[in-house]
Amino acid sequence: MNKTAICGLRAALVIVFLLILLALGALILVGNYFYTFALDPNAKGGFGSAAGIVDSEYTRWLLKDSRDVSLISDDGLELHAYRVDGSVHHRYAVLCHGYQNNATGMASYGKHLFDLGYTVLLPDARGHGESEGDYIGMGWPERRDVVRWCQQLIAEDPEAEIVLYGVSMGAATVMMASGEADLPVQVRCVIEDCGYTSVWDEFSGQLKELFGLPPFPVLNAADLVCRIRAGYSITEASALRQVERSVTPTLFIHGEEDTFVPFWMLEELYQAASCEKEKLAVPGAAHAESAAVAPKLYWPAVDAFLARHMA
To answer: Does the residue 126 lie in any domain?
Structure first.
């Protein structure tokens, strides 16, 4: 090979190398943008919230009658929750709110359980409300926070019996917690309302809906950024895999008109669950609206499930 050919080959390799660097740089920029858009609690945008029934009457009740409690997470964050003590000893409900919401978004659910005698604990998820945190974990790191909240309740009351109850991201959170090997046996049951199968599935759907983009390579790039900035992978954040491991009785609820967390996810989660299980499909209900749209269907089903599994 003559010198001219060798120089031409070197120039071509340099160009290819530079193009690869540019492509990688572009992917990192795209991944960082999507991470900020979806998971930075301080950034404007995101996929929207509307997870939970926002009602000033219930919010006023919660803020008036509750007391503030706190917890230090496994990774050193100070987490906040509202606690309202109920009339029935040893019976507790931990209620988890949705994406870009806060604990007050679960006030109506908390009031219903409080009226049944439960002591209700409504945590602000990390990065939300009054809890510390600079990213939204979509339920995956939060699952460990839920385990810690349960452990704290049990340390105060060894006879505690606990129900985990979540809506939307909160529903994914309690499902993910249900598959943890160290979830206390005092957690008697789980109620999940419109939770997603996995963060990957949910983000894939939102990418297509909002931007008309496929998951590859955007989610792959975002996953890399998530690993670096938040310390967890989008690919591991799966409620589907966690309910396969769960031994805690679970009630799966979903609105039939839900397109934000698609209704088809209900059946996938229900079929995957290895625990004792029940399901409720609510006609006419969009995302996180089941309790509001059909209270005469919703609450009797919830109450009957609780009666079967809480002493």
So the answer is: yes
49: amino acid identity, one letter: S
Task: Establish if 98 belongs to a structural domain.
Answer: yes
Q: Which residue has the higher pLDDT, 215 or 13?
A: 215
Is residue 263 included in any domain, yes or no?
yes
Q: What is the domain-level CATH number for residue 283?
A: 3.40.50.1820
Q: What is the residue-wise DSSP string for 114-150?
A: HHTT-EEEEEPPTTSTTS--SS--TTHHHHHHHHHHH
Question: Is residue 8's pLDDT more than 70?
Answer: no
- Give CA–CA dist 254/192, Å, rounded: 9
- Position 18 confidence tier, pLDDT thresholds 50, 70, 90: very low
Q: Is 148 exposed, middle or buried (0-12, 13-18, 19+ CB in 10 A)?
A: middle
Q: What is the domain count for the chain?
A: 1
pLDDT at 118: 98
- Scan for tokens 């299980």, then name that residue: 277
CA angle 66, 76, 166 (to 5 degrees): 45
Output the DSSP codes for 246-286: --S-EEEEEETT-TTTTTHHHHHHHHH--SSEEEEEETT--
Beta strands 161-167 and 91-96: pairing type?
Answer: parallel
pLDDT at 200: 97
- Mean pLDDT confidence for 20-47: 72
Side chain identity, residue 277: K
